[in-house]
Amino acid sequence: MAVVVVVDADVVCAGVRELGVAEGGVVIVHSSLSALGNVDGGADAVVRGLLRAVGSAGTVVVPAFTPQVADPFPEVPGPGDAEVEEARGRVPLFHEGLVTPMGAVPNALLRWEGRRRSRHPQASVAAVGARAEEVTRRQPLGYAVGVGSPFDWLYRERARIVLLGVGHDRNSFLHYAESLVPRHRRKVRRFPYLVDGERVWVRTDDVGDDNGRFFPQVGAEFGEAGGVRRGKIGAADCQVMDCVPFVGFAQRRLGELLR
């Protein structure tokens, strides 16, 4: 008979500590609650375990992206017909408590007392801990995952990237790495925004989406080079890596792949 491992905050804390998460450190976490298996306390227990692992001097960060704050008719430049404008009018404005489709753990952290959140309408991050205000303080509207963004701050502070039951297709740090490549892919973001109390549509540029084309390959190659610590937490395959060597490797490989 298979042994069912029950995951709780203590198991999460011990698991990520074993994989190299240190007290006082900064981590950015990408996760799948269901991949962990039976979690006593659900997503709240995962957040509690992560916070316990970094301690009172550490900080836990999650991507809290809100792609629902977007133009439903990006192919229509300027004002559209009544149907287009009605659909655009239903798009919510970003606000501090807006839920993210990034999963149960990010939404649990968004409900945490004392959490901070950056203000980008589509690409915010949320954080809890000693340096939560620093990591979320600034984020440009254009290139929201590039230089000057929370990811840039995390890079400078040598944050650790934690993947709990997810692969590199969910590793948002790869977008930051690609933004540093001169011939990177590009996309347009378009979202509603308040300017002097008036709702307007803002258009900005950013690094393009990967959609599984190169990111899983680059992440796998970095792991083969020995830059990743791997282990099991509950039923989930988990990985932890230092973002600085990871970004250096990914920037070089993406530069080669995007020629």
Automatic annotation (TrEMBL):
Belongs to the antibiotic N-acetyltransferase family. Its EC number is 2.3.1.-. InterPro entries: Amioglycoside_AcTrfase, Antibiotic_NAT-like. This is Aminoglycoside N(3)-acetyltransferase. SUPFAM superfamilies: TTHA0583/YokD-like (SSF110710). It catalyses: a 2-deoxystreptamine antibiotic + acetyl-CoA = an N(3)-acetyl-2-deoxystreptamine antibiotic + CoA + H(+). Keywords: Acyltransferase, Antibiotic resistance, Transferase. Pfam families: Antibiotic_NAT (PF02522). It is an enzyme of class 2 (transferase).
